[in-house]
Amino acid sequence: MADVAAPTELQVTTGPIRGSRKIHVGPLNVAMREIVLDPSCDEPPLRVYDPSGPYTDVNARIDIMAGLPELRRDWIVGRGDVEQVAQREVRPEDNGQLGPDRSGGVQPFPNVRKQVLRAKPGANVSQMHYARRGIVTPEMEYVATRENLGREQLIGHIRDGQDFGASIPDYVTPEFVREEVARGRAIIPNNINHPESEPMAIGRNFLVKINANIGNSAVASDVAKEVDKLVWSIRWGADTVMDLSTGRNIHDTREWILRNSPVPIGTVPIYQALEKVGGIAEDLDWEIFRDTLIEQAEQGVDYFTIHAGVRLPYIPMTAKRVTGIVSRGGSIMAKWCLAHHQESFLYTRFEEICEIMKAYDVAFSLGDGLRPGSIADANDEAQFAELHTLGELTKIAWNHDIQVMIEGPGHVPMHKIKANMDKQLEACGEAPFYTLGPLTTDIAPGYDHITSGIGAAMIGWFGCAMLCYVTPKEHLGLPDRDDVKVGVVTYKLAAHAADLAKGHPAAKMRDDALSRARFEFRWRDQFNLSLDPDTAEQYHDQTLPAEGAKTAHFCSMCGPKFCSMKITAEVREFAAKQNQSADSFLAASILPHSGAAGEVASRSDDGGGLAPTTTPEAEAGMAAMSDIFKQTGSELYIGAAGRERD
Amino acid sequence: MADVAAPTELQVTTGPIRGSRKIHVGPLNVAMREIVLDPSCDEPPLRVYDPSGPYTDVNARIDIMAGLPELRRDWIVGRGDVEQVAQREVRPEDNGQLGPDRSGGVQPFPNVRKQVLRAKPGANVSQMHYARRGIVTPEMEYVATRENLGREQLIGHIRDGQDFGASIPDYVTPEFVREEVARGRAIIPNNINHPESEPMAIGRNFLVKINANIGNSAVASDVAKEVDKLVWSIRWGADTVMDLSTGRNIHDTREWILRNSPVPIGTVPIYQALEKVGGIAEDLDWEIFRDTLIEQAEQGVDYFTIHAGVRLPYIPMTAKRVTGIVSRGGSIMAKWCLAHHQESFLYTRFEEICEIMKAYDVAFSLGDGLRPGSIADANDEAQFAELHTLGELTKIAWNHDIQVMIEGPGHVPMHKIKANMDKQLEACGEAPFYTLGPLTTDIAPGYDHITSGIGAAMIGWFGCAMLCYVTPKEHLGLPDRDDVKVGVVTYKLAAHAADLAKGHPAAKMRDDALSRARFEFRWRDQFNLSLDPDTAEQYHDQTLPAEGAKTAHFCSMCGPKFCSMKITAEVREFAAKQNQSADSFLAASILPHSGAAGEVASRSDDGGGLAPTTTPEAEAGMAAMSDIFKQTGSELYIGAAGRERD
């Protein structure tokens, strides 16, 4: 294993996405992506949200062995509420060097910090704490610029959507970001020990975000692959990444990922804690878990999934389920609770956990350990009992000014999805919801990115703040590089469909730009404006590889004669030549639409011929039209004719 | 081209889907698929709907050169209302041997019928006509048996779903089918000259159906490929197939497809009519179109897409659109209307078209020639003006006892989908709706099976009767074999998600069976119960190829230690050992859920420690539990332990 992590083996994809360039906006140099369009369309470049970090910046120097620049370091230190402390020493068990199956190893990250940051005694360095004291941090300013994108171009734009009670502003100000964070409706996950991350917000009133899961297991994967998956997933749009590594080398794998990640990283600390006790759930205890939280907080993990809602009394509620407890963390804690027949230490020690979180600004992602694992178990007693408890814990965390989001299902049929969103908003005081799909049917393993993409788009529309992706390998195996990309792109399109339906300002700009490109046969622009230009162009070229086809006014679906878009353009051209309004056109046409019903009625009554009755005026108008039409060149292939005979 | 259609080249996929066998049920030998499960689960085989025809029947002899057996021939002739007539002679222009780009050709189907069937003078052979006269046809009986599947096992089963006013019966009787067809709420498309087809129903109160589009264009594809795509698409679940061939050899291609298709075949006759006039829309006229309808009706086409709602007055309404008119048929007719400045002959001759339809029982699929081609154009004036006219035409067709369904969009953001369904039901008197997606965003070419699968699942839930698939190649190129499969499976899962959400009886049986298999680590059953067993197993084997892994109680996602399902099983096993009810368990636990809120409240008020207060009884109960637990073998790996150390 060791050599796979060697520098020469560590390859990641760099360079811009085709047709795009990295730009930096405003005094904080907020990173965005700009899609440059063909000069013929006379449209400005389109700005899109871009979590890919320096890897897509032609001017950035990437060195995986050194890690990314510390963008936020000065902001953090500048606040004067942190102190430097020696990093907790790495122990063998941190990398799971206990128990069976611990062979092999991973080269430690060469550029580990010896000193880490921690809040000064009594201080609280969470963004929520600043927000509640009225402080607008650079992180909040960064988020405001980042979320706005092209919105300033849309002043006075009429909102078209159904937002189910969200409060999406026409324009995002730093003050708006502060308010949302202060009231717990949004979080900015960024551990003070992860200064490499570019600030982003997760909240119902911001763009819908997506998370990609990576991480190795005792059975498959290795560090080099995981770092590559990290860079690959953010290239295609992952807003946060969770390292769900289990088995060996957890600590070192995480270090490689954190030092090279421009997006917030989340983990499930109980996985590593379990490794520290050789995989025996009953041997877990508070001290080992606490030690793991500090270890990971010092490394810079931005949010922890903690299944503190899996309470002893709820466990029997899962006994009659078709798929019982499907959350790994949930089942581990359930096993612990049963073994000791005690309440979960995650629940009883919750305030002590809060003390750790606030010292590094780690956000809670309260885990839904009792989420349904099948359509049959959706919205059951166990699920909602836990949700109720997560609501209670949210309020406790908020009493400590700690940022919180809530994890959600899972497997839910369409008619039960809205109830999940509504109950979460109500039980958790509008804390951001973060769901896994949900899958809308169980019968399509191999296609669960789609069964879940359906549920994800819907719950995103209803108010879910972040969608955890599902790959085609869900339920079947560990996703490879291709699966990660398919999962990310599927969730990006689901999140965007949700933003569109919510009437999110500027969301529609990209759809309209792409549709114009499509209608005007600007094939390259159509590819470049899509979520995956490489695949779009590759699919096009499978049937029309010739470079000339990139400007052809047809595609292989219909062929030259049949392109409806081409014919429409000709229709439009012809209509324009009449330089008349639609009204005068209607006047000249045989019958106004309002008259059609009556006409049809009488027609179907007598069952007679269908020759429409026309007025002399109408007939005159039609004759005139036909003349003009013939003059403009019989078959209307004006301009296009030359092209077509190529 | 000629040789590609030669017998030796005509290869189609035959044999059962893995883990399944073809069965024939009842006196009419209704074809179904049965998935056989592992004996260990002691569950009966699961019956699933199966449109794949004889191709998946090990006992069937397949001869593409001869075509399929004429299942319905005796039923049709037995009604005594048809006569045999000489088939219209094939003319060169039928295969588009006119104008440019007409080189090459296709071998004619060797087993063409010389004699075809037609209604006796004055007779009407449509299923709707029989239904309205109170006649229950064998076709209706076949449909009833086919739709029921496992429903009889569910008597007294409580409906779980939201059907938005549909009238889904617990059990489908032939009389129910007759009523639905009589009132126009369902259609059974089966031309009397396509006796090879197995009757199926399209209607809001039946299972949601899906359509796959195939067909060559002047640019790509050939007959051998199209016949293969036909068989391939129904293998994975396509309920009907549309032959959208353009360019040359349209007539012969269609003959090959019809004679070998067990599912209804739909076409867009205007495509062939246009070929007959060398591709010049303005040269189209009623006589050529009428001749094409008869030609195709005699061949056995089951439903015609006819864009009779594209009226002259509506064309200017498209002038301001971002993507104008995207329907091929719609744009052809718009061009014709503008050129002649006359009302569409499809509209003015509609009753004459009805006379042809009723003589062969061809169903109308009233085309939405003005459907939106982009998010920007969704639900606009042109779209709904046409829908209003389609409603008028539906009533005219119903006056002739002709079966009708209505085509719908297209590109629609999620918040505008329900309005499409509601307006269609209202405008068209609940005639079946048949939509293309809709795509919920424009920005993901290459993934439009997914952007549209989201919209398809939603509108299917709202009441859409049939979903026209979209493949990954949509907007980019002609789908190949793999694209067809991905499109079909995506739409099958969308249709099934819709049936689930509607609370369709028996739909959930398959989800539950698969979830039980998943929970019990019956990997083979999980694969076989899925929509695509081949892909599911292949994905699983990519990380765990060993045959032993097929029975392993874990997968590569989590590895042996972490499998939550395994741990849950152990938790359940342990709980069972206590042989106590959930209630007594709760009594013994530290606090009932009802008390938790208060506890947390007080806790968060004083901000004190979290040690929960317990009663002596509770403590005693816990102690007892722990003892029993330890006796049953410390770490709970009962039974599974041996396996795990393998």
UniProtKB/TrEMBL annotation, chains A, B:
GO MF entry, a single one: phosphomethylpyrimidine synthase activity
Q: How is the cofactor bound?
A: Binds 1 [4Fe-4S] cluster per subunit. The cluster is coordinated with 3 cysteines and an exchangeable S-adenosyl-L-methionine.
State the residue spans of region: Disordered.
87-109, 597-616
Query: For this protein, what is the EC number?
Result: 4.1.99.17
Which reaction is recorded as catalysed by this protein?
5-amino-1-(5-phospho-beta-D-ribosyl)imidazole + S-adenosyl-L-methionine = 4-amino-2-methyl-5-(phosphooxymethyl)pyrimidine + CO + 5'-deoxyadenosine + formate + L-methionine + 3 H(+)
* Limits of the ThiC-associated domain: 19-83
Q: Could you say which enzyme class this protein belongs to? A: lyase
Q: Which Pfam families match?
A: ThiC-associated (PF13667), ThiC_Rad_SAM (PF01964)
**Alphabetically ordered keywords of this record:** 4Fe-4S, Iron, Iron-sulfur, Lyase, Metal-binding, S-adenosyl-L-methionine, Thiamine biosynthesis, Zinc
Q: InterPro entries in the record, alphabetically?
A: ThiC (IPR037509), ThiC-associated_dom (IPR025747), ThiC/Bza_core_dom (IPR038521), ThiC/BzaA/B (IPR002817)
What does the record give as its pathway? Answer: Cofactor biosynthesis; thiamine diphosphate biosynthesis
Cofactor field: [4Fe-4S] cluster
Residues bound to [4Fe-4S] cluster are C555, C558, C563
Does the keyword 4Fe-4S feature in the UniProt annotation?
Answer: yes
Enumerate the residues binding Zn(2+).
Answer: H411, H475
Family assignment from sequence similarity = Belongs to the ThiC family.
Q: What does this protein do?
A: Catalyzes the synthesis of the hydroxymethylpyrimidine phosphate (HMP-P) moiety of thiamine from aminoimidazole ribotide (AIR) in a radical S-adenosyl-L-methionine (SAM)-dependent reaction.
* Record text on subunit structure and interactions: Homodimer.
Q: What is this protein called?
A: Phosphomethylpyrimidine synthase
